[in-house]
Amino acid sequence: MPLYQVVVLAVIQALTEFAPVSSSAHLALAPWLFGWKDPGLTFDVALHAGTLAAILIYFFRDWVQIIGQGLGLRAGTDPQLKQNRALLWLLAAASIPIGVIGFLFNKQADTTWRNPYLIGAMLIVIGVVMWMAERRGAGTKPMSQIGWADGLTIGIAQALSVVPGTSRSGITIVAGMFRGLDRETSARFSFLLAAPAIAAAALKKGWDIHKHGGIPPDMKVPFLVGTVLSAILGAIVIAFFLRYLRRHSLMLFVYYRIVFGIIVIALAAFFRFTAE
Q: pTM of the predicted model, to two decimals?
């Protein structure tokens, strides 16, 4: 795998995993648009590992406090987290839906659902849902007030992200806003909730690689570069996006999703027409 492709795909992963524009859509479409070969399972694991590392690095103190409080320990000083001592178990319960859906539809998500028509349609549909959430307006509920109904609703919404084009962050942030959370809190909870799902996906695919002999020799450098680059850039994107949401709405991403979705469908139809 050429190093320039590794860099491009790692940058795409970092920029689109945490912004509500669907990393799966961009990563599925990039090889198609550029005429590259599918990077394969090994590189997919590298990007998952990098994304997980970005979340754990940026939210390290949060995770220490959440886990400590969940186990009945004093493990942090964040006042919002301190008032929500059940957050660890809430995140665990909210992770169950995507675990079930991912197990049932993993093959479809990696094969038949990765077509430009479905991806383009989901980009547009979720963009419209985001617009509806913005029209309704964000709430004011902070992290300390997130309850079981909120967490499970967001967890169920996250399960929809197995469909390419949906966007894990987009659908969970919107679900949080519909439950009355403010934008930044919705995004923060979304990123924390993503960690168990991403870790499970990385472990499962990593085990598949192990069963087939481990990382191929020619993929060791791309694997390392992809993991490190997506981790560093991902942490930077998280920081930027959370600051962005303190003063701005999601409308920029609504416009992007709808326009991009239309372009994807149009390109798919054009290439099919010319091929015929």
A: 0.90
Q: What is the DSSP string of 53-89?
A: HHHHHHTHHHHHHHHHHHTT------HHHHT-TTHHH
- Name beta bridge partners: 91: none
Nearest Cα to 58, choosing from 14, 10, 12, 20? 14
Measured distance CA(208)–CA(101) in Å, rounded: 19
Q: How far apart are CA 169 and CA 161, in angstroms?
A: 9
Q: Are 127 and 169 in contact (CB under 8 A)?
A: no
Dist CA 54 CA 250 (whole Å): 22
What is the residue-wise DSSP string for 41-52?
HHHHHHHHHHHH
Rounded alpha-carbon distances, angstroms, from residue 224 to 11, 22, 256, 259:
14, 23, 31, 34
Closest CA to 224 of 1, 57, 59: 1
For the residues of 253-270, what is the DSSP string, one character each? HHHHHHHHHHHHHHHHHH
Q: For 2, which DSSP code?
A: -
Q: At what angle do helices 3-18 and 40-58 cross, to 10 degrees?
A: 50
| Dist CA 198 CA 48 (whole Å) | 6
What is the CA 64 to chain-centroid distance, rounded? 22
Between CA 235 and CA 44 the distance in angstroms is 18
Chain segment 110-153, per-residue pLDDT in tens: 788 888 899 999 999 999 999 999 998 878 899 999 999 999 99
